[in-house]
Here is the input.
Amino acid sequence: MLRMAVLLSGSGRTLDNFQERIEAGTLQAEIQVVISNAESALGLQKAEKYGYPAFHAVGNEAINQLLTDYEVDIVVLAGYLKLYEPPQYLSRSVLNIHPSLIPSFCGAGFYGHHVHEAVKKRGCKVSGCTVHFANEVYDEGPIVVQKCVSLDDDDTPDDIATKVFAAECEAFPEAINLVAEKSIDYFWNRVKP
Here is the structure.
């Protein structure tokens, strides 16, 4: 079972998903702490409601200082909208979800609704999400899970976002369970640069 720190910037929808699955016994993880770079993030209120230690911290140094107080195997970026640089002992242990099928529509500037707008503008027939390990470059670490969704020609960026988020709700827990089963090193050793 993985001990997780959850970093978020917004409403905590992904935290809700994790909590539901932990309660159902289908997510092989325990949340140790929730941290947000946004002081008013609804996700922090949800974390407190669920009984998790919840903190506002701005910047990598402040976040990493908080993490020293908790036993954490993996840091999960659940809608965290900054480039996170972990402490050395967690350098290969940061898991992120991206709202496209990497390597499409990823990298600096491609986050949230920007991705779905670009997918719509390009006329894509499919989109999806990618759970991957994060490193110092946006969306470049080893891929753990990808889920694909079909798109209709009349889908708006909001429609695409709804379809992709539904896929994310399945993909992120699946990826965490795979990491718990196979180990972090398995994924880093599987893909060669």
The first strand starts at residue 2 and ends at 8.
